[in-house]
Amino acid sequence: MNKIGFNVLAWSAGMSDEILPIVDRLKKIGYDGVEFFVGTPDKAAYQRIGNHCRELGLEVTTVATVSKEENPISPDASVRAKALDRLKWVVDRTHDLQAKILCGPLHSAHSLFALHAPEDQEYGWGAEVLHAVGEHAAPANVTLGLEALNRFESYLCNTMEQLSRLIREAQHPNVRAMFDTHHANIEEKKFAQAIQTIAPYLVHVHISENDRGTPGDGHIAFDDAFSALARINYTGSFTIEAFSRNDPDFANAIGVWREFSKPWDIAEKGLTFIQQMCEKHGLK
């Protein structure tokens, strides 16, 4: 059964008790799950919030990024070693939250460009690090859902074809893929073809409008996306990823310079929209 989640990055990238009222309201609205950004160093906070979500009956997923100092495709072996350590730490915090899916552009540093097209050696370096992360994640029952980003945020994996290549090279059952409608809207020719390409590895989906506001209010071809997901019998979660300037440091880091929609408007209208899309296309 497809479940519907919401990423609390619309309010905060932090992990503290201040987000508990948000979690409670998302449950009250009707969400099945919540997604958190893994970055806050306080281990105990992840455990407390994970327990709270479990008590509410909410499933948890996580998302993370890596910096240039911890870049899995750096030509510097010491930087790649730091990347492995960082990603292991992210897996551990995901486990503290009692989550099973860790998603995001874990393959390379966010918004770091080498001024050349992706090279075979870079895929090899990334695959080596991700295989090792998969080994660490397996005992915790955590699966990585790697994310392809648009060309303005990453150069290694912009498309499902590139992402599939990296996953094949990583050769680990806990290294899988996610699909994000915002990035695919920029990079893919057709949603149906992209989803068919990534189908063997797909474990998570982000529902995100072209402007990162309320799903259904923009020009994303959601009918194409949902119909394609229905054809491959996708059974994972649909998680809304929308952004705001509520957390200025995070907003500045990802280039969010204005408000798209009010977070609670996104949450309420977005839930209804996904439910309607699922019913329309025979997803349950």
Structure description:
This is Sugar phosphate isomerase/epimerase. Pfam families: AP_endonuc_2. One of its GO terms (molecular function) is isomerase activity. Keywords: Isomerase. It comes from Adhaeribacter radiodurans. By secondary structure, the protein is an alpha/beta fold. The protein has a single domain, classed as Divalent-metal-dependent TIM barrel enzymes (TIM Barrel, Alpha-Beta Barrel), CATH 3.20.20. Helices cover 44% and strands 13% of the residues. The chain contains 10 helices and 8 strands. The protein has an 8-stranded parallel barrel, surrounded by 7 helices. The longest helix is centred in the N-terminal third of the chain and has 20 residues. The protein starts with a strand and ends with a helix.
Which spans of ≥5 residues are poorly predicted at pLDDT below 50?
none
Quote the beta fraction. 5-15%
The first-level CATH class name? Alpha Beta
Helix content: 40-55%
- How many extended strands? 8
Distance between the termini: 5 Å
Protein name: Sugar phosphate isomerase/epimerase
Pfam families: AP_endonuc_2 (PF01261)
GO molecular function: isomerase activity
Keywords: Isomerase
List the helices and strands and how they pair.
Layout: E1 4-7, H1 20-29, E2 33-37, H2 43-56, E3 59-63, H3 77-96, E4 101-104, H4 120-137, E5 143-146, H5 160-170, E6 175-180, H6 181-187, H7 191-198, E7 202-207, H8 222-231, E8 238-240, H9 248-254, H10 263-281
Parallel strand pairs: 1-2, 1-8, 2-3, 3-4, 4-5, 5-6, 6-7, 7-8
